[in-house]
Amino acid sequence: MPIKVIIIIAFLFIIYNLAMALFHLVKRKENDMEASRKTAKALTWRIGLSLALFLLIILAYALGLIEPKGIGARMQQIRHMQQIQSP
What we know:
The protein is mainly alpha-helical. The chain has one domain (2-85). It has three helices and no strands. It has helices at residues 2-27, 33-63, 71-85. Helix 1 (2-27) packs antiparallel against helix 2. The longest helix is centred in the middle third of the chain and has 31 residues, at 33-63. The chain is elongated, with a radius of gyration of 20 Å.
């Protein structure tokens, strides 16, 4: 459960940085280097956080802290059960 909270918080930080980049992009006036720098910084943070979140999800899956759920996971379970039951 704590890993899911960490993932949700990371998503929120990613969305926050994306919103800040949009804000500075829209607010920017012509030849405003400070707003351009803030936009680039926010987008850089978003990319870094997205990469970190991706690696965290892969690591959590590899360690068994999270497991896939949904149609594809159920289909794999059914296929696995059928292989076990057939001789």
